[in-house]
Design brief:
Layout lengths: L1 H24 L29 H5 L14 H20 L3 H23 L4 H20 L5 H21 L5 H14 L1 H24 L12 H26 L1
Helix pairs in contact: 1-3, 1-4, 3-4, 4-5, 4-9, 5-7, 6-7, 6-8, 7-8, 7-9, 8-9
The structure holds zinc ion.
């Protein structure tokens, strides 16, 4: 079992390394497959043996092999986090269709939320990738005779509620946030989408309040909401069903 966890972690860390490339290149409108990664300072192409997730960073002590420029600690952190999230997904779902579906969603969320933090923008190419990949899973469900209505409603409610909020409040949240919720809804289905929306507002208000109280942000500053949706969606994947049971037992 430990060996299997190790394999899943390494797989996740390798995907995380690819997600780093996406996070860096998508806002610059560069191809995510070509050319190979190079140092952003000295432009030297990074050799394969220096691209081993996490290990290379530690081995090179966080510096470029050629020019010694510092490499952001964010790269190994994202590789590590993706690895851990893949392992938790595996513990929860085993090797299953849900595992495949949720590691795709988690990967998308890592990319979208980090780009949102960097640029306060959500790029349509990432939204489109989300819609297409959810459509593939819904196609598999149809083929397996699993009803997909809940997922369509999830997308409609997720994207729709955010759109409504944007129209009413005129700002505060951006259309990118509605796009993220649409994609999450398509992956999560109606019930879990409601939990996710609920959690994202709680997480958003708590962290927003803390940022304002600690003086890091003022009321007028724009705080990207995408990362909160991403955190809420990931929490929902793992404990959404439990929250739902708890919630409904309190009401009924
Ligand atoms: Zn360099």
């Amino acid at each position: 079992m430990i060996i299997l966890f190790g394999i899943i972690f390494i797989f996740g860390a390798i995907i995380g390394s690819f997600l780093n490339v996406c996070i860096y290149r998508i806002p610059r409108e560069e191809s995510i497959v070509y050319p190979p990664s190079s140092c952003t300072t000295c432009k030297n192409v990074i050799k394969g043996y220096d691209l081993v997730p996490i290990i290379s960073y530690l081995f090179l002590k966080g510096k470029c092999r050629y020019c010694g420029e510092k490499v952001s600690i964010r790269y190994p952190i994202i590789e590590f986090t993706t690895g851990i999230l893949f392992v938790i997904t595996f513990i929860k779902f085993g090797i299953s269709l849900d595992f495949a579906k949720y590691i795709v969603l988690i990967s998308l969320l890592v990319v979208v939320s980090m780009i949102d933090l960097d640029t306060t923008d959500v790029y349509f190419s990432t939204t489109l990738t989300g819609i297409i990949s959810s459509a593939i899973f819904l196609g598999i469900y149809l083929y397996m005779d699993i009803p997909i209505g809940s997922y369509i409603y999830g997308g409609v409610i997720g994207g729709g509620l955010l759109s409504l909020i944007i129209l009413i409040t005129k700002g505060g949240m951006g259309w990118g946030d509605a796009e993220i919720c649409l994609v999450c809804g398509l992956f999560l289905g109606l019930k879990l989408t409601i939990i996710m929306l609920f959690l994202s507002f709680i997480i958003g208000s708590v962290i927003g309040l803390l940022l304002i109280l600690s003086g890091k942000k003022s009321k007028k500053d724009y705080i990207p909401f995408g990362p909160f949706i991403a955190i809420a969606a990931i929490v929902t994947i793992f404990v959404g069903e439990r929250i739902w049971v708890l919630y409904t037992s309190l009401i009924f």
